[in-house]
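Sat 14:20. Reprocessing the chain from the morning session after the first attempt stalled halfway. Input below, unchanged.
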Amino acid sequence: MAASEFIEVDVEPGPAHEDGLSMRFKRAGEARPVRALTHESEAGLDGWWTVRATDRADAAETREAVAVQVDDSSDGLCWLVAGGAHGLVLTHRERGATERVPYLLLSLRTAME
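Finished this time. Tokens:
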């Protein structure tokens, strides 16, 4: 992600988002790498998840995801965790469950590594 006033999140149609999406968030800080975070999935599975970015629909290759503070019009200051062209791959540390999401918008109180 280039340093600019906005962060662009563009996700291709696929497992992370059926139709694909393009979003823009107002940057409020610098991007930093993120390897893991606390999160509750759509299915209600809570705990620590590893997080990786992927540019492939099959997620055969992944890379480091990034977190950056953004100013969201409805939530105020929060963390945006973004990945690649096919979003993020989350893996629950204890259960091994996998979830695909286009991005995460999280509270500043969210624990991250």
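Strands lie at 6-11, 21-27, 32-34, 36-40, 46-53, 63-72, 76-82, 88-92, 98-101, 103-106.
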